[in-house]
Amino acid sequence: MKVFVNGAEIEATESENVGTFLLKRRQQVLRKTRFEDNPRGMFCGIGVCFDCIVTIDGIANQRACITQLRDGMRIEVTS
Amino acid sequence: MKTADVVVIGAGVVGSSCALIMAEAGLKVIVVDRGPIAGGTTGAGEGNIMVSDKEIVPEIELAVRSRDAWFEIADRIGNNFELHAKGGIALSRTDSGMAGLRKLAAHQSAHGIETIEVDGARLRELEPHMNPDIETAIHYPGDGQCQPMLSAAYFLRTVRHLKGEVWQRTEVLGFLKDKDGAITGVRTAREEISTRYVVNATGTWAGDIARLAGSELSIMPRRGFILVTTPAPRLIHHKVYDADYVANVASDSPELQSSAVVEGTESGTILIGASRERIGFDSRMNMAALERLAKQAISVFPVLSKLELLRVYHGFRPYSPDHLPVIGEDANVKGLFHCAGHEGAGIGTAPGSGELLTAMILGKPTFMDATPFLPSRFQGVA
Amino acid sequence: MSRTIIIGGGPAGMSAAVEIARAGGDAIIIDSNPRLGGQYWRHGADAKFSHDGERFFALQDEISRHSEIEVRGGSQVWRASYHDGVASVWLNDGTSLASETLLIATGAYDRSLPFPGWDLPGSMTAGGAQALLKASGALLGRAVFVAGTGPFLLPVAASLVEAGVKVLGVLEANRVNGWINHLGAVDFSKMKDAARYFKILATAKVPIRIGYAIIEARGDGRVEEVVIAKVDRNFAVKPGSVEVHKCDAIATGWGFTPDLTLAHSLGVTTDIDVIDRSVVVHVDAFQETSQHGVFAAGESTGVGGVDLALIEGRVAGIAIAVQRGLISTMDAKNRSVGLAQERSRIRKFAQALLSVYKIREGWRSWLHPETIICRCEEVTFAQVRNVVHDLGASDVRTAKLLSRCGMGMCQGRVCGRIVADVVGAEIGRSATDDELRGIHNRPIAHPISLATLAKQGQ
């Protein structure tokens, strides 16, 4: 399957969550905070802390760590 | 025994506005609240400082003066409470609704409120994400917003700096009176305070305080839910509301009513109101209210369908039988001044109310004729 | 009677489902994970386990054999309520379910303590680091420190070593002597587990340092180095003990917080744990809560680990079967032989562990004024102090509302207890029981799409 990260097409082979998929591609920083513009990545890894939020298919604030990759998914990260 | 010029009961935005203005006028003020600061309706409001939804002349005069007073206070003590003149937009999607809005705008305009009718193109400039099927609306540049809890907290901070005191978690147990029945003091859970003036700024509980003082006052709770979305980059710039809002506030139906009121906040969340239910102090969540609010908000701003609901909160807005605030001395108890029943407008009209009460207590002229607000309109004079 | 709603597909939820199915009943298991197993048996699509997979497969096989048990993975409950004997839940796909019987098996998540730099990318919870590995073999870093307190740090460090991560040290803040004895006290299999972890760590020459903590993480946009220090029995830094080490990630864990969001919405009575003051669901001998028909099992009744969760799940499942009239009380007794004793034995042990690995107050001395307390709203320690000392906030709720602590996306799941403890200390008293309960008050348990909500109203 194919997914798009900031518009770039990337081949994804296994079914996994967006967070681990990005981490394996050295994308540790997933967003910048809205007040201080500080970088954030995954923290709790299980959907509790909302630190790993990214925009998925146009919907903001989606938790990368509990969202499964889907074919054609468009992921926007800020780093 | 403590001594004060004025005891203000209630540490919400209304009580803290009264306390601030009185302390600035040189009065020694003690604020007493049975809970924490801003723990009641103040902590559950959007922070409306609206002139656009006022219809009756005295209400308009109070709202316009209060709006100006808000910015003057910010100049004096510093704007640490997110006060800004964001402006409001009132819309209707029916011809009769728009006709009503135009008529109201003309009336408001004659009483000092700036109103601008805008067409679709201008609307899109003001609110790029608004539903394109909305082609006309009234723009009110004078509507503002603040963060109400921070406002109350900073007002009270200034009161403390002016040698006033704030007693949190202190219940008022009773009143001391002289042989003529005039107030001479307040009995609290902490200690007695000797004072000639008491301000009852206890919102939905104002009737209880009136009864405790041997009088009566009818202030009822009206429940309202507010939806808070997840934070997003600024999408909505004004307070945008469907004009049914104005009609609904004045309605006496106990059932759920709602109309879209949508606005962005400094923290990035978007607030969606406004529902009204007159069902007493019931804090259970009403799914129907949530669903209707979401639907109505999306119909005005389709972009909201891409956002999520993060929190819901409800507040109990205090209202009087004629939906006007009660400001002035009790008809039966000398020295007891009420400042309550502001309904959904309490944040906005708090400073003006405080100015009226301060002038009344000091025996000075008021900035407007306050007769329509006097408690005696409901109270048989003993 | 409607089928039983089981919220949470971890060990407690799975074992309850199996008991209900064995009694001839039906149930639906709802979990945000796509797969059963919870955090303990979290796994990827290929379902590989380094150990303890047998119990999972046995439960999963039995569940899949019973068509009366529906598993709805990847689904989140965003709202729950209880009214007139019926529990209702609303799911993020816009549907809702109602039943006379419901099991809260919502588990727990890592408890975190703040320190300067804990918000940098590369700083994760211990459970988070392990979750990445279990779900897909992803590594949080190449050279990491594991720190905090509790026996859980060992398996996390061991699994990182096995996955090829260079673990630079395991730092246990509490003065514990011989973790192996604590772990071994429960039963022989735990002893074997602990011995295995120690062997892995020893072979990889991972230093285990007792009485040490990470007190700061530093780096330009991500973790590049850590400051570690020896701490006293109260967790205060011992002067002269500070060391700085290079690393590219850290995993910290301070025990667990039961997730009581939905329990709170369902209105069940809760207790405050006497040792760590965490909020736990109050249950009777049958795992039933104060609300008739609502049961709770696993970490939500108090953190106790997988073995306790499995037993509590079984007890709850059997009790639900009785309440639904599926089996007789006599039958239930036969199915429950030994469970009550086993439950009380493990519970006692869990409480003993909790007192050994208790969080001591001195951690607050690690904070700098600019240290983030609330990650979501980026509220600093100085700002929290300010709302108390300058603005007059005199309770936890007011301090939260004035500072925005806990008002963000996670709704105080991460910082709720931290804020309660910090504000309490600033006010000069401990957080009250009701303030601790208030941390779990989230009427909207998880964000729900406005579009979905609007459609529901049609």
Automatic annotation (TrEMBL), chain A:
Keywords: Oxidoreductase. The keyword Oxidoreductase applies. GO terms for molecular function: iron-sulfur cluster binding; oxidoreductase activity. Pfam families: Fer2_4. SUPFAM superfamilies: 2Fe-2S ferredoxin-like. This is Unannotated protein. It comes from freshwater metagenome.
UniProtKB/TrEMBL annotation, chain B:
SUPFAM superfamilies: FAD-linked reductases, C-terminal domain, FAD/NAD(P)-binding domain. GO terms for molecular function: oxidoreductase activity. Residues 5-360 form the FAD dependent oxidoreductase domain. The keyword Oxidoreductase applies. Keywords: Oxidoreductase. InterPro entries: FAD-dep_OxRdtase, FAD/NAD-bd_sf. One of its GO terms (cellular component) is cytoplasm. The keyword Oxidoreductase applies. This is Unannotated protein. The lineage of its organism: unclassified sequences, metagenomes, ecological metagenomes.
TrEMBL record, chain C:
Residues 3-303 form the FAD/NAD(P)-binding domain. GO terms for molecular function: oxidoreductase activity. SUPFAM superfamilies: FAD/NAD(P)-binding domain (SSF51905). Keywords: Oxidoreductase. The keyword Oxidoreductase applies. This is Unannotated protein. The lineage of its organism: unclassified sequences, metagenomes, ecological metagenomes.
